């Protein structure tokens, strides 16, 4: 199973949060990469969306954003992605906000997948830490916050690719 962070991996990140479908823009080649991964693996998204807990947008608006993402993915030849998200504010001390592993564990349980069979791809240090805690392989991509995350201890230890398309091609080449 391949689990993906969303912002900075699939779509361009924004310091002002992605609050509306109009603000959601895919990273070049990322949707083709997801569609390619889906030909070989179960793929799902695990994403912190504290904008909900901060009152910037609600769950229904977030569902609209994911409907846009999934429509664009289907246009690229893929299938709708299951999305597991943490809606909480950092102050809420929930178990699902990365770097905690809760979201990843829930996603793996939903697919009856063990951590040893799972890779998590992210662009931030907290993604890599969540993957480590969940027991999955951590992969860093250098889109989004990736260049800064590369300089952290977890970033230096992680397998690293330029972007999601490079990861997908390398994984499928290795598995073929
Ligand atoms: Mg990210
Ligand atoms: Zn949470």
Describe the structure.
With 176 residues, the chain is an alpha/beta fold. It has a domain at 2-113 and 158-168: Rossmann fold (3-Layer(aba) Sandwich), CATH 3.40.50.1000. 40% of the residues lie in helices and 14% in strands. The chain contains 8 helices and 6 strands. The chain has helices spanning 30-38, 50-53, 59-75, 102-110, 125-134, 146-150, 153-157, 164-175, and strands spanning 2-4, 43-48, 83-86, 119-122, 137-141, 159-161. Strands 3-2-1-4-5-6 form a 6-stranded parallel β-sheet. Helix 1 (30-38) packs parallel to helix 8 (164-175). The protein is globular, with a radius of gyration of 15 Å. The mean pLDDT is 97. The protein binds magnesium ion and zinc ion (ZN). Residues 86, 88, 94, 96-97 line the site of zinc ion.
Shape: globular
Q: What is the radius of gyration?
A: 15 Å
Q: And the CATH topology of the domain at 2-113 and 158-168?
A: Rossmann fold
Share of helix, binned:
40-55%
Which structural class do you get from the secondary structure elements?
Answer: alpha/beta
CATH class category label of the domain at 2-113 and 158-168? Alpha Beta
The distinct ligands, each listed once, are: magnesium ion, zinc ion
* SSE string, helices as H and strands as E: EHEHHEHEHEHHEH
Care to count the β-strands? 6
